[in-house]
What we know:
Blueprint: H1 2-7, H2 11-37, H3 46-68, H4 83-90, H5 92-115, H6 124-145, H7 156-179, H8 189-216, H9 221-244, H10 250-254, H11 268-271, H12 295-298, H13 302-314, H14 318-330, H15 338-353, H16 365-372, H17 384-403, H18 406-428
Amino acid sequence: MASCAVEGGCPSDYIAVAIAILSIILLIARSILPCVLHKIPRTKGSGFWIPVIQVFASFNLLLSIVMSVHFLKFKKTHWMLSCYIWGVWVEGPLGFGLLLSCRIAQAFQLYNIFVKRRLPAIRSHIFLPLMLLPWIAVAAFIHAKKPLNARCHMGTYWVIPAVCLHILYLAALVGFTRAIQHIEFRFDELKDLWHGIIVSALSIGLWVSAYILNEIHEEISWLQVASRFLLLIMSSILVVVFFSISSSQPLLSQISLRRREPLEFKTMGKALGIPDSGLLLQREPVVAIDPNEPLEKLLLNKKFRQSFMAFAASCLAGETVHFFEEVHELAKIPIDDPVRRIYMARHIIDKYIAAGAAMEVNISHKTHQEILTTTDLAHADLFKNALNEVIQLMKMNLAKDYWSSMYFMKFKEEASMRSSGCELEQMSGWNYSPRLSFVHATDDPFHHDHFPKGSSHDSYHSD
């Protein structure tokens, strides 16, 4: 026992390492399999990079503990096996610090969007490095002072400040979460954050206890073995549960890994419960389409909008009609329901307005900046100027060609057939119940619907 406690390689050490490897495999599977099984397109921005960074930080945290706390039996002669590389830099700024900073960045985003009602003034790719600066400063200071001994342990004088830094970041996460707890979220963001705090607090509490015992009591062999075993096990539990309840993509975390369960919500409008969102009634009233009517008025008819959208897609301009449709759905949400309006507005910004968005529309720089710097994401006229510009583009580039296209000819033919069918139905007294058609669209799963707790619910992302 005394030998392996110093040199590593105890049976319990190998068990802990095996559990750590399994946790990393589970972590990677949990992040990749839902996207592979459900063919979810890769998201852009923080919705993609923050979860990826969390996986990277989790791997660093576990690997640094294995390399610096004598789990494996090997001679530490190479400079790459230095205690300061693994025990200070990789475990601190690139491990635990980065992991907590990702979580704080998510809470910071929610605070700005739902409390301040604006997009964060500091983007995540800037906010995250700023959060890491204290860790980098402390790591550099420790590296300069070199307090670690041959077994990568620090004395009490250095352990207490290091532990305080860990607790400080957990306190920052609690602070941001308390600031948004009064928001009646549509989905589970706040619950996920509190779950993350509870799990991290319990794990960090045990982790810190094991860390202190391992650092201070070098002379007790059995305590060294037991404390480092607990240190790695609690870290393994922390990284897996921490990622599984990520508030960055709550819908994605709800997606089942079983292929049999269909996706229940295919558009943001359906997820938010907007009336008639994405639905086409097979027996809609037949309305005569007059080409002399304003295009924005004609597009309010779903059948016409579907035909015009198909034509626009054939001209590689389908995003303009999709944008019109989603802004039209946003208008259905009451002004006194700011939370749902914010969800929908942020979805539209991420999908159509942000630079490099999946379906970015062509609007002026002034309008673009007005939307991105708005002080109220729930404002009724947030997309008014953008919508006017998009409609003008459709009138100039699409409308004239549409009236002479096969799409309009087919639309008139179908309208005529539906009109004849309605007359026959009225004569025979038949009654057809409306049926829902499939809606083919990708969507942003920062959100899902108000389904009963415990029910099956799925959706996907385009955050």
